[in-house]
Design brief:
seven-stranded mixed beta sheet, four-stranded antiparallel beta sheet, 118 residues, mainly beta
């Protein structure tokens, strides 16, 4: 499966952004989908995920601010980010996996930079 990410940019603290990840070349509903991020000088980390049946899970620091969703008809997963903080600044990546998402997942989109100004 190929993943195409869009939606990053520059936003002020407290603002919102929505990331999209469009999949092609695979059976989208068969994959758990998720978002990871990597800040400068740091390891890539899990942010949010959604299972094949729609169950969602989040990194603690984004709970209540970020929402992950999927539209199987459009083969797209979204990450709605609200109340953005400076520490959310990172390159965000979309990932897909038949099983549990991790930094070792097989399928990745290109990153998109999210910059939150304080």
């Amino acid at each position: 499966v190929q993943l195409q990410v869009s939606g990053g940019g520059l936003v002020q603290a407290g603002g919102s952004l929505r990331l999209s990840c469009a999949a092609s070349g695979g059976t989208f509903s068969s994959y758990a989908m998720g978002w990871f991020r990597q800040a400068p000088g740091k390891e890539r980390e899990f942010v949010a995920g959604i299972s094949q049946i729609g169950g969602t899970y989040y990194k603690d620091s984004v709970k209540g601010r970020f929402t992950v969703s999927r539209d199987n008809a459009k083969s797209t997963v979204y990450l709605q980010m609200n109340s953005l903080k400076f520490e959310d600044t990172a390159v965000y990546y979309c990932a897909a996996d038949f099983g549990m998402l991790s930094t070792r997942s097989a399928y990745w989109g290109q990153g998109t930079l999210v910059t939150v100004s304080s």
